Amino acid sequence: MNEVDWTTLPAPDDDGAADHLEGLALADLPLPSTDGADVRLAVEPGITILFAYPMTSQPGTDLPEGWDAIPGARGCTPQTCAYRDRMSDLQAAGAARVYGLSTQSTAWQLEAKERLGLPYPLLSDAHLHLAEAMSLPVMEVAGETLLRRLTMIVEDGMIRRVHYPVFPPDADAGRVVDWLRAREG
């Protein structure tokens, strides 16, 4: 994976689209997982980290035209890999589980999970059920509705903390670890 110079990409602005989420209960909806089962985030006990991202690329498939010019679009793979690389720190800080979430199909996500060696499942909201139920921030790109990058720290089905916008994406997992550690102390 090539290092990204985040200073060359447009940073997303906080448009307030996630302000309503902190303190809400997650909608109780089943989401297909790359582990082969549906996951109901609302009933997961303990601390769950759910990070939403627009899309991961696949080898041999072009990203939408102008992708790097869309504030906050670039960086799905660096963010996903940062969670992979910080998994033991997240668990030591109290996270019971981590999930990535996008609107891509489970088959598309499975390729990314295997290629990137992810130790956690990716969840698909391809039909936008969770996005609509929770009014998650979205963007329209090349005729598709994609999630904007955000991270929710969920405890026993309740959203305790929201990071939005997330930039640079590769620093997101570290910010979550820091928040969980500060909460312990």
Summarize the entry for a quick read.
Keywords: Antioxidant, Disulfide bond, Oxidoreductase, Peroxidase, Redox-active center. This protein has 185 residues and is of the alpha/beta class. It contains five helices and nine strands.
What fraction strand?
15-25%
Strand tally? 9
The parts where pLDDT drops under 50 for at least 5 residues are none
The helix tally amounts to 5
Give the CATH class: Alpha Beta
End-to-end distance, in Å? Answer: 35 Å
Mean pLDDT rating: 95
Morphology call = globular
- The radius of gyration is 15 Å
CATH topological fold name = Glutaredoxin
Strand order of the largest sheet: 5-4-3-8-9
Helix/strand structural class: alpha/beta
Into how many domains do the coordinates divide? 1
Query: Major β-sheet, in short?
Result: 5 strands, mixed
Structure commentary:
- Pfam families: Redoxin.
- The protein is an alpha/beta fold.
- It has one domain: Glutaredoxin.
- The protein is built from five helices and nine strands, in the order E-E-E-H-H-E-H-E-H-E-E-E-E-H.
- The protein has helices at residues 76-85, 87-92, 106-116, 129-134, 172-184, and strands at residues 30-32, 38-40, 47-52, 95-102, 122-124, 138-141, 144-147, 150-155, 158-163.
- It has a five-stranded mixed beta sheet.
- It is globular, with a radius of gyration of 15 Å.
- The termini are far apart.
- The mean pLDDT is 95.
SSE map:
Layout: E1 30-32, E2 38-40, E3 47-52, H1 76-85, H2 87-92, E4 95-102, H3 106-116, E5 122-124, H4 129-134, E6 138-141, E7 144-147, E8 150-155, E9 158-163, H5 172-184
Parallel strand pairs: 3-4, 4-5
Antiparallel strand pairs: 1-2, 3-8, 6-7, 8-9
